[in-house]
Design a protein that fits this description.
- The complex is a heterodimer of chains A (309) and B (249).
- Chain A has 309 residues and is α/β, with parallel strands linked by helices.
- Chain A is 26% helix and 29% strand.
- The model of chain A has no long low-confidence stretch (mean pLDDT 96).
- Chain B contains seven helices and 13 strands.
- In chain B, a hairpin with a 2-residue loop joins strand 7 and strand 8.
- In chain B, helix 3 crosses helix 4.
- The model of chain B has no long low-confidence stretch (mean pLDDT 96).
- Classes of the chains: A alpha/beta (309), B alpha/beta (249).
- Chains A and B meet through helix 3, helix 4, strand 7, strand 9 and strand 10 of A and helix 3, helix 4, strand 7, strand 8 and strand 9 of B.
- Strand 13 of chain A pairs antiparallel with strand 9 of chain B.
Chain lengths: 309, 249
């Protein structure tokens, strides 16, 4: 049994989500190979070769794979998949974009966002915004799986010394091109990898008021998230959304500010180690999952909290 | 251009579902059902394209039980021109749905297919991508902006770090994200008019599609419950607990 992990990378090195995905692969058992597809990704491949427990790194370095367009990368993965029992990718926007395309080309159903490995063919995954957990068994010859990164503790980024091998002809479908990208610039940690997350909801009132959360987050070294209500109201961009249809986070400490706690939001953060809720409505459902609840006006409590931590 | 929109009948987003005692699934008896929220956004986008004169006809399709006619009628009331129901058992896996949709695409030959990025029941986020694979079309997933530019489609996508714009050859597949638009409500006169719009029912067999799946759900359980903690009286007490009890700051 050999497992292929499709690497997620950023700034010339593998992203933390790749380490969680390798951990899921290790749970399944067998040799773990990592695929790095992109353009000028030699450095990424080197960083992948150092991941603990990785036996081999495959590099597909070609202009066709720049920006990992699914129309081009999916056929590459399909070509490689024939030699593997499982193909795994983190359930990032990239993984979710590419892997279902791979699954359909292989004529198999994907197993999406697994949170645990029961055996080599059986996995658990949340459904209905995490209000139910399904145990799913796959009979596919090649099992195509996306991994919810919060379900698996990352393997060590250093310590391995895998061989690096160039693979794959260029598959350029020629039906899509990359135009541009606007990436949020922030010195704060990435939302899904942060140890502390401070999130704001509709109770923030407007986008400008998020400055209170940014300033608290900077003092704590935290990332800033938001509920769907806050995104819907136009306070903050969608890439800050935590919840069923946004990002799934499980930090050491999650501070929910002015968030009522709709089930769709809880789906994205209820696996956090410690949850703090600050809300002036003492009936808010968020208090039912919070380890520490504070019924208070957030515009007084947040600045005070910033002063005391 | 002709636009095809796929919609799914799902449990209403306000319903908190319960797992059945025999762990065979969730209890959907007497539960309010609605159109999946991301599918509403898909219908709205198609209607806006028609209002702009870009779309000439909107065909809405659902793959599901007989009762999914309700959601198709809703889409017709919102502005779709006609509807197709591929009538099948209600618990189909994504690949089967994608294959049924592929058969409809082959027949209807739309230039653009719009789907929701994810259904809020199975939470898979894969049918649109699978349809793109089966048709060989380009895909613009998690779209927050869609613009037709000549024979191309520019799609701005919500990605983890921000936004990405891609240019796709038509025909293309788009899946909707939250900020693409804000869906309208159907007016009463339009709801009445929708009752007269054509709704065709076909069987998967008629389309020559296999609904087999490589996935089998063995059981469905309730998640481990998280119990409520304590209420603190002041920010000072909160900070003290976080430092000394939880030891997280």
């Amino acid at each position: 049994m050999t497992i292929l992990v499709v690497a997620e990378y950023e700034n010339g090195a593998v992203a933390p989500s790749t380490l969680n995905t390798v951990a899921a692969a290790a749970k399944i058992g067998g040799d773990v190979h990592v695929l790095v597809a992109g353009q000028n990704v030699g450095g990424v491949a080197e960083s992948a070769a150092k991941i603990a427990g990785v036996a081999k790194v495959l590099v597909a370095d070609n202009a066709a794979y720049a920006h990992v367009l699914p129309e081009n990368v999916a056929p590459l993965i399909v070509e490689l998949a024939k030699g593997y029992s499982h193909v795994l990718a983190p359930a990032t926007t990239n993984g979710k974009n590419i892997l279902p395309r791979v699954a359909a080309l292989l004529d198999v159903d994907q197993i999406s966002e697994i949170i645990s490995v029961e055996s080599a063919d059986t996995f658990k995954r949340p459904i209905y915004a995490g209000n139910a957990i399904a145990t799913v068994q796959s009979s596919a010859a090649v099992k195509v799986i996306t991994v919810r990164t919060t379900g698996f503790d990352a393997v060590a980024a250093e310590g391995g010394s895998a061989a690096v091998e160039a693979v794959g002809a260029a598959h350029d479908a020629g039906i899509s091109t990359f135009v541009g990208e606007e990436l949020a610039k922030s010195d704060r940690p990435e939302l899904t990898a942060a140890k502390i997350v401070v999130s704001g909801g509709r109770g923030m009132g407007n986008g400008d008021n998020f400055k209170h959360l940014y300033s608290l987050a900077d003092k704590l070294g935290a990332a800033v998230g938001a509920s769907r209500a806050a995104v819907d109201a136009g306070f903050v961009p969608n890439d800050m959304q935590v919840g069923q249809t946004g990002k799934i986070v499980a930090p050491q400490l999650y501070i929910a500010v002015g968030i009522s706690g709709a089930i769709q939001h809880l789906a994205g953060m209820k696996d956090s180690k410690v949850i703090v809720a600050i809300n002036k409505d003492e009936e808010a459902p968020i208090f039912q999952v919070a380890d520490y609840g504070l019924v208070a006006d957030l515009f007084e409590a947040v600045p005070e909290l910033e002063k005391l931590v | 251009m002709k636009v095809l929109v796929a919609v799914k009948r799902v449990v209403d987003y306000n319903v908190k579902v319960r797992v059945k005692a025999d762990n065979s699934g969730v209890d959907l008896a007497n539960v309010k059902m609605s159109m999946n929220p991301f599918c509403e956004i898909a219908v709205e986008e198609a209607v806006r394209l028609k209002e702009k004169g870009v779309a000439s006809e909107i065909v809405v399709v659902s793959v599901g039980p007989t009762t999914a006619q309700e959601q198709l009628r809703t889409a017709l009331a919102l502005g779709a021109d006609r509807a197709i129901l591929v009538e099948a058992a209600d618990e189909l896996n994504s690949l089967a749905v994608a294959k049924a949709l592929k058969a409809v695409v082959d027949k209807e030959q739309p230039q653009l297919v719009i789907l929701g990025k994810q259904a809020i029941d199975s939470d898979n986020n894969q049918t649109g991508q699978m349809l793109a694979a089966l048709t060989g079309y380009a895909q613009g997933t998690f779209a927050s902006k869609v613009e037709v530019a000549g024979d191309k489609l520019n799609v701005t996508r919500e990605i983890d770090g921000g936004l990405q714009t891609v240019s796709l050859n038509l025909p293309a597949i788009v899946t909707t994200d939250l900020r693409l638009n804000e869906p309208r409500y159907a007016s009463l006169p339009n709801i009445m008019k929708a009752k007269k719009k054509p709704l065709e029912t076909v069987k998967p067999d008629d389309l020559g599609v296999s609904l087999a799946s490589t996935n089998k759900t063995l059981k469905v359980e309730a998640p481990a419950a998280r119990s409520a903690g304590i209420k603190v009286k002041s920010v000072a007490e909160l900070v003290e607990k976080l430092k000394n009890e939880a030891k997280v700051i």
